[in-house]
Design goal:
It contains five helices and five strands; from the N terminus they run E-H-E-H-E-H-E-H-E-H. It has helices spanning about 10-25, 35-45, 60-70, 90-95, 110-125, and strands at about 5, 25-30, 50, 75-80, 100-105. The longest helix has 16 residues, at about 110-125. It is globular, with a radius of gyration of 13 Å.
Amino acid sequence: MLSILIIDDNPVNLKLVSEVLQFEGYKVAQAPDAEIAIETIKHLKPSVILMDIGLPGMDGLTLTKKLKANDETKNICIIALTAFAMKGDYSKAIEAGCDGYISKPINTRILPKQISEILESRAKLSD
């Protein structure tokens, strides 16, 4: 079973995304900021991280760079999940090391499919 860590400082977003993914059968953990996320990652070893970019303290792009630079966490699939949908934000997320990008507000009906598609395209790249 795939484990997903959702990192988002908005409790409503955390709850909504968690419930959608749990309903689809994923094992889900939550973190409201980068510091808690780092601790959670050490214990959970998630397969996927849904990363809010606009986190308090250390932002999501900085955390992504940090995780991708670490041998223990560099292979975790990180998907930017963000309301930053300005021109260039997708490129910034990919340059920071994100494997995919989903803009908010999320569409709960297609979120699991979007995650699957990102995982599939990532798997094809590593073949």
